[in-house]
Amino acid sequence: MNRTLPRTTLLLFFLGACTSPPPPRPPPLEIALPPAASAGDAPSPPSDPALVSVAAVRAPLKLVLDGDLGEWGSLLPARERAPLPTPEKLPTTANQEPEQPLPSGPNPLNAASHLALAITGDALLIAADLGEPAREGIWLGIGSLAPAVLPVGEMSRGGFVQPFDCDFEQIYVGEGTFTKGKPNPPEVVAACHGLLARHAEFVAKHRARFARMLKIDRQGVHGVAADGSLVSIEGAKYALKPAAKGATVEIALPLTALPRLVEAPITTLRLVARAATTPRPEITPEQWVWVLLPEAASFEPYGEIRARSFELLNGHTYYAAGMSYQPGDPLHVESLHHADGASLVAAQEEALYKKLTTLGDVEIGEVSAYAPWLAVFAKGKLVGSYNDAGEGMNVDDFPPSVRKGVFPRDGNLHVISFSGRASSDCCGMRQPFWSALTIAPDGSASGAMEGVDSPMFWDEVEELASPDLDSFGLRGSTWSPDSKTSMLKDLVGVEVTWKWDASRKKYLGSARRIAVPKKPKAPKPKKKK
């Protein structure tokens, strides 16, 4: 870190340079070190014979699945502990905190058994040197950080969620505050506690998806279901080589054997391995060990899009996105949303990418990852990412814009979008607006609308657009037709239009006064039979 020295310090330095040199420093203090262990000294026995050390390593350049570990190199863990992941850098935060990582458990070099894991773009590879305590097999856990799960409760002013009080009526006072009312009747209390129990069950099941448990023994490698039963893993490959006191094992698994992940690309995992001395795995949270992958792992297709999606969400959501993915299904992502107000949380799966159109070497596509954004590729490389949230706005403050058209025009690609009037629990009202983006043949993008002094607030408004989107705009009534006019006593009609000008390469805006449009008649309520 660069620091600026105070003027007084600089003055002392200058005066010191003009004085006699300082006396010589005393000789360095010698510290007696204990003698190094000789080659013949035996390592101390492990304190927990059932413990298996774990490590993340690079995949062998040429892997022959025969149980011989010669191509793997060392399976020993790193001498320095891996840094814990930073939840604040993941798109799981906002107003809800993610699950905090526990400190790493014991991972001794002198464990009786050792296991190393490697991740490639299409496989999970495992090598293990099993000592005498683990000769009957081991339990292996693979996990990642679990995301925050949205709370349930009453939606409060500002978009915050007020926790349920099952025993008493909650009366909204205003400005985001509630007061306790009369006691709830027994059936309401029971229904409320049932809702909270269902939410707790959802949270537990959701977080369980971010850890996988395997059993490795002489019968092969199997997954461990929630009830402790063993299940086969389709596509698993396994080779065991018996040894005098144990065995060596090599395993290749499909990426579906990994848990869900909240990081893209993935840089850390948590692992735990123990001798299978019990019918079911008996592993505590404190026994898991965080490991740092030797290099970040990405999964194709769409590895670059997935990484950019996580980056765009970090620090730019109002609610915890809870976004995750399963490496064996790279075409989709999943995020968490409130449903039915704030009394229910649901997971929503989205197709990560959809190609829209191309022009020469340029491709434009829509990304769906909690909030939509536009991806621009030039010669197959991601060169731009754009969303319609607006400067200083979070991507989930308001509903997303609607793509009205993506098409070539005058040598460029044009993207025309409309954002309708909307209200938000967190951010009030959004007035309607149009946006136009042009993508040049080199993939660069620029705004294509010339500003016009149009109303900031509408009373009634409708969108306008020609069939070929040569022009588009808004028509309605307002009390403030432009920034130069004070709030009027009576409503006036205004029409704002943007029309393509080929010579200026812009959609030029204009505004004019019109008669106040008639308000649409409210539909008559249907008569009950």
Explain how this protein is built.
The protein is mainly beta. Among the domains are: 52-88 and 97-145 and 210-297, Immunoglobulin-like, CATH 2.60.40; 154-206, no CATH class. 9% of the residues lie in helices and 38% in strands. The chain is built from 3 helices and 31 strands. The strands form 9 sheets. Strands 11-10-9-4-14-15 form a 6-stranded antiparallel beta sheet, with no helix packed on it. It has a 5-stranded mixed beta sheet with strand order 1-2-3-13-12, with no helix packed on it. The relative contact order is 0.10. The model is unreliable at 1-42 (pLDDT under 50).
Number of strands: 31
Low-pLDDT segments, ≥5 res: 1-42
- What does the main sheet amount to? 6 strands, antiparallel
Give the overall average pLDDT: 87
The first-level CATH class of the domain at 52-88 and 97-145 and 210-297 is given as Mainly Beta
Q: Quote the CATH topology of the domain at 52-88 and 97-145 and 210-297.
A: Immunoglobulin-like
Q: Helical stretch count?
A: 3
- Radius of gyration over alpha carbons? 31 Å
CATH architecture of the domain at 52-88 and 97-145 and 210-297, by name, is Sandwich
Strand order of the largest sheet: 11-10-9-4-14-15
Give me the secondary-structure category.
mainly beta
Sum up the overall morphology in one term. flat
Concise overview:
The chain is mostly beta strands and 529 residues long. The protein has helices at 7-17, 186-208, 303-313; strands spanning 52-56, 113-119, 124-130, 138-143, 154-155, 161-162, 168-174, 177-183, 211-217, 220-224, 230-231, 237-243, 246-253, 266-275, 289-297, 332-339, 344-351, 353-359, 362-369, 371-378, 381-386, 402-409, 412-419, 422-424, 428-430, 433-439, 445-447, 460-465, 471-478, 492-501, 506-514. The model is unreliable at 1-42 (pLDDT under 50).
